[in-house]
Each structure stands twice: as structure tokens, then as C-alpha cells.
UniProtKB/TrEMBL annotation:
It holds the Pfam family Sod_Fe_N. Its EC number is 1.15.1.1. PANTHER family: SUPEROXIDE DISMUTASE (PTHR42769), SUPEROXIDE DISMUTASE [FE] 2, CHLOROPLASTIC (PTHR42769:SF3). This is Superoxide dismutase. Keywords: Metal-binding, Oxidoreductase. It catalyses: 2 superoxide + 2 H(+) = H2O2 + O2.
């Protein structure tokens, strides 16, 4: 069964002024769609065609891995954003952030440092290790925590298509906007029990 491009969980204009409708059209409507179509083209007629996307990511390599991981990463990223997002995490997530980073300000500093220090394209993640500890992880290109032991909680796309229309090459300004959109409820729902 072919994969379908997931719908955005909000209207294409909902993240303005932080991310424009034009950025979402390019990011979701072109790039994300292209990755889904590339996966479908590569798995058609194979045993992978019946698997969920996460399993395809874990079982593939080469160009199929790149397309599948990018399709999954983008779907996850769009869930991490919300028009009424931002602010600070609450409850258990807030406690874990305090335990592992000191406070939300330090989490943001470490996350931004990883995003600004990533040469070229990739992703920055807040992950939870099997021990329960939270950590920041940067991955290049299509890299994803799905291929390791850590559970992804929050993703920030630092490929240029995620921000160039709105911020040109100013990744730091994009990160400021990103924090105003973070869907902490979604992040908290990803935590291990």
C-alpha cells in the first residue's frame, strides 16, 4: 500500500508570522511530498510496500533510506510545531528538562548551539535515551534517531528549505522563530513511560 503525504496539522497560514505559507508550501508541498513519492517509487512491488514508514527507515539504506528518513523526519517536525506553541514545557517534561539541562534556557542554548554548529544540512533533536535521560542530538542530512536507541521528542529541520524563504541564510533568526512555535504537548506525549 503506498504511503500518503500526511496533512499538515494546521492551516498553511497558521504559523505566520514565524513561518510563512510560502515556506510551508515549499517545505511540505514540495520537499516532503517529493520524499514520500520517492519512497513509494522505490518500494513498489517489494516486501517493504506493506511496512509502516518507521520500519522502512529502520530496514533500508542508500537512497531509499534517505527518502524514507526524510519523509519520517518531516512528518515528525510538522507535529512539533503549533500556531499557539512556544513558551515552556510543563509537568513531567519540565521536570526532566530541569533535571538534565538545569532549565529551559539552557536546553534552548544547547539546542541552538547544536543547530548553529551543524555544517550543511540536517536535523537537531531533543531525544530521550533508554535510561530516561534527555539529550540533544544533531544528525546530518537524513539522519534520524529512529536508527538508534534514543526516542525522538522534538525535531528542528535545519535544511535551508525549512527557513530560506523567510530568513535567507540566518539560521539563528529561524531558531528564534522555531522556539515560538514548539508544540510542547506533542513533545511531552513522546516521552517514554
Amino acid at each position: 500500500m503506498p504511503l500518503e503525504l500526511p496533512r499538515l496539522p494546521y492551516d498553511r497560514t497558521a504559523l505566520q508570522p514565524h513561518l510563512s505559507a510560502e515556506t510551508l508550501d515549499l517545505h511540505h508541498g514540495r520537499h516532503h511530498r517529493g520524499y514520500v513519492e520517492a519512497v513509494n517509487a522505490r518500494i513498489d512491488g517489494t516486501e517493504l510496500a506493506e511496512l509502516p514508514l518507521e520500519d522502512i527507515v529502520r530496514q533500508s539504506q542508500g537512497s531509499l533510506f534517505d527518502a524514507a528518513a526524510q519523509a519520517w523526519n518531516h512528518a515528525f517536525y510538522f507535529q512539533c510545531l503549533h500556531p499557539r506553541g512556544g513558551g515552556d514545557p510543563k509537568d513531567r517534561l519540565a521536570e526532566l528538562v530541569t533535571r538534565h539541562f538545569g532549565d529551559i534556557r539552557r536546553l534552548r542554548e544547547e539546542f541552538d548551539r547544536a543547530a548553529l554548529g551543524l555544517f550543511g544540512s540536517g536535523w537537531v533533536w531533543l531525544v530521550q535515551h533508554p535510561t530516561g535521560a534527555l539529550a540533544i542530538q544533531a544528525t546530518r542530512n537524513a539522519g534520524t534517531p529512529l536508527t538508534g536507541q534514543s526516542r525522538p521528542l522534538l525535531a528542528c529541520d535545519v535544511w535551508e528549505h525549512a527557513y530560506y524563504t523567510d530568513y535567507q541564510n540566518e539560521r539563528a533568526r529561524y531558531l528564534e522563530a522555531f522556539w515560538k512555535l514548539v508544540n510542547w504537548d506533542f513533545v511531552a506525549a513522546q516521552l517514554r513511560d
